Amino acid sequence: MPYEHRSELSKMCEEGFLRKILGMEVKNEDTTTRLAGSGGPLIYRYIPEGSGGTYTFTKDSAFYIGTSKCETCVGVYFAIDDKRCFTAHINVDTTTKAGHSFRDINNSTATAIRNEVVRRLNAEQTSSQWGSVSDRMRNSLVMVCRILSSGWHDMVGKAVSDAVQQWLQITDPRPPRTCGGFIVRHPDGEAQFFDIEASNRFWHKRDEVKTRAWGMLLQRVEQD
Hints:
This protein is of the alpha/beta class. Helices cover 25% and strands 26% of the residues. It contains 4 helices and 11 strands, in the order αββββββααβαββββ.
């Protein structure tokens, strides 16, 4: 969404956030953070739809990471340690035997989605050697999804967000923030949220390698 078409509140939030980090955190960082010297947009590592995984931060990488345009998809971030995080743009479609695609779900399909998300998180945890689920992972969790319900049925994003919190062993689960995108400064920065995507007036996305690690096409379960 063009900057001039954003709500006044959205503009104020974004500008206030930028003023804060410019004054407190970013002023001494090098060109891994800024696109063009001290006056350019801040660089962030952009996770495309369906992509995700474990991302490592070094002195030569941008400190910011995020995603955008999460309509029925779910954008997820949590810190693993000071140098690593998990970030994903989780996209789920369900299909019938006739080949029709849906994003609204019934209870049985929701269970299938939750099981698949948990399976993939377990696999990522093992392959990337995260160790046990920790308070740091739970406390740093950021999730966004614009559309969780059609008004009559839950959408795929509801099952995804439930699965992430189930995997993290969160005892009081909450819905994701109903917006389209976020950027987080790893490891301990606050998140900035966007209606759809970040304004290029302040942010420049540097695409991470696109994968299909978090793009899912599941068979729709016709009966509960």
